[in-house]
Amino acid sequence: MSLPRRPKRTFVKVVLATVAMLLLPTLHAAPPKCDSLFPSGGQRGQQIEVTAAGSFSNWPVSVWVDREGLQVEAGKDKGKFTIQIGEHANGVYLLRFHDNEGATSLRPFAVDSLPEVVEAEPNDELNAAQKITQSAIINGRLEKSGDVDGYAIELTAGQTLVASLDANQTFGSPMDAVLQICSADGFVVEQNDDQRGVDPQIVFTAPGDGTYVVRTFAFPLTPNSSIAFSGAATYIYRLTLTTGAFVDHVIPLAVQVDKSTDTQLFGWNLAESSSVQIPAATERNRVFASHPEFASSVQQSVTKDTVIAAVAARSESEPQSIELPAVVTGRIDAEGKEDVFQVSLTKGTKLSVQVESDALGYLLDPLVLLLDAEGNVLAEVDDTNRQRDCILTHSIPADGVYRVIVRDVHRNGGLRYVYRMTIGEAKPDFALSLASDAFVLTLGKELEIPVAIERKNGFVGEINVQAVELPAGVRCDVVKSESKGDSSKSVKLVLKTDQGPVSGAFRVEGIASREQSGQQDADFAVAGTSARYWAAWLTVAASTDSK
Known about the structure:
The chain has five domains: 33-110, Immunoglobulin-like (Sandwich); 116-244, Sandwich (Jelly Rolls), CATH 2.60.120; 254-304, no CATH class; 306-426, Jelly Rolls; 429-540, Immunoglobulin-like (Sandwich). Helix content is 3%, strand content 48%. The chain contains two helices and 47 strands. The longest helix has 15 residues, at 9-23.
């Protein structure tokens, strides 16, 4: 009779390893991370494949979109997504990828009317420029140091080409791009770098029939010691090349809550009078004005105040009368011109006049003046906080009629010298902000969310701060921000739960104890961009061992 065989060592190791894993706490993957999307946009009505650069420990992940218009599904391969773009989608969407471990920061995805093209290398040399046979939007990347991308397009004499590159302003690409238009023999006939923030744009009328090359290169957004063209995987751009209609700005640049708005479109290759109707929106809507047959879209702010368009050809002797509060859209369309407004004010009113242009991607360097009825200058302001845009505040000395003048500080003007003016009484108010937009709550533990508080115009009231619309089972007590002390500047919300896993969007809101100051939602910066948004994300992790 034979003796039983000794188990093989490898088998024993496997058994021991399995037992050890069962005894150890459950290990968890890191939350997903997304740095960028490529392509970073698409044509309405089309389905496209998109790659998310980042890390995804779990696959597939779920996708949250800020508004209707996109359907996003994870593909079989990690980091690959299919996006179906709706027929009426427009503007910039915000996408968030999430799983049971956490969520990414919001990432922008742009929708437009033109066919989409993906950059094809090599296209650095003039004679190797990628041929573009129709108006299109090119999804490109300056992916290495010294990279130059060129695109060849045929133009006829008198034809107007709009070449507009979007990189830093919308997508947060850390690049300061340059655009050039070159003749077929290599001469640079037009060049631009900072037409829309640090993004370039050229409107070029062809002097003759022929092939022209549009090329782009970039320097780092944060200057360094190198003197060379820069590039990186994050240098993503969308370059619009069109001889068709292109929308540069709209009037008005704001819409009033719960009211539809007739919006005039301005740009190049447009009919003399082009307009669209913007449907009624709530304060939390992100609204974009666009035309189904035109390239580009323009974001409009949503306000409770009256929305007004500045009347052209007004002067100091013939001011435009407006009632406060109001949001006014104007354009200084010629050198030396100015817009003049007349307002009736009472003694002791603290007037606030905010003028935005540079932050919106336009060219006005605003100067704002406040005059009394006799024409005496009571106050004037150019830059505020080292920014070109400005805010004027002034206490009114007596009842009467006053004038507000808006002009370019250098007396410049033109099609792109557009501004949005918010004018009214500077009432005590407050604002809340979050340093992050995605949080993870662990079962059995507490999560602290810091909320920064900015008190404006002497606001000293108490504020009740709370997290609302939380995922099921999550609890959060109201925290009071006192009028003085540390809590007047910041508070910490404490979230708890004994249920999970679960995740979802939520809001942080502040309600002032004084009725006239109302309610405010906390917002946060969309990572890498100047945009701000209010819907944060909470993940309740699956286990108490989650990080």
